[in-house]
Design goal:
- The chain is an all-alpha fold and 244 residues long.
- Helices cover 69% and strands 0% of the residues.
- It is built from eleven helices and no strands.
- Helix 1 crosses helix 2.
- The protein is globular.
Length: 244
Amino acid sequence: MRLLTLLFGLASIAWGVAVLPTLWRQSSLEQLALSIVDRSAYRPGAVASMTPDVEAAEQDPYCRPEALRGAAVVRLRLVEDAMGAGERQAIDADLSALQTTIRSSLSCSPADPFLWMTLSWLEGARQGFNEDQLRYLRLSYSLGPNEGWVAARRNRLALSMFERLPPDLAEAALSEFARMLDSGFYEDPIAIFTGPGWRLRDQLLPRLKDVAERYRDAFYKALYQRGYDIEVPGIARRDPRPWY
């Protein structure tokens, strides 16, 4: 019995030595991914410095969905940073790495709406508009219709190619915009409305009629302060400004 206890103790120590460093790295990776999703500020180079941890998560023989999602979030951020800096070589390399990570992550967690949404965006970025892009977007809506942090990115993507969407996806995108606002989110709907949604305002605004009045009012006031004089259902318009 003492021998068995000793052997069990040694095995536990060996397991800890082998596994704990990996879990520690993955925890740091997941924390960085959460901060990226929350749009927290981070020092220059902080994301790129996590590349070894990203690669370790990708090469882990065990299926760890949270770690792989974290790796995908970081890879996506690296792509966005490269695009923002106009670094063509880095963009191509980062897009390729992101595609590998996304497909690996989906093999581990095939019901993740963020991963399918990202794959839809990636397919368009690399191949241009195609049917696979629509198929991946539809899967994202089907698997996670109400996840706020996914919706903000997904709605921007869907509205950017709205004219090419089939009726079911067009309806999903318009409804999603209204749901985001009805959840009390302001910044994302405002940024989307004044960005890819501006040309679709005549279709988006009527969808707001069932949004809580306090949110419609806040939406209208925020846009008015930014110089947009629009008509939000059920909200009295202010007198037009003479300089607009």
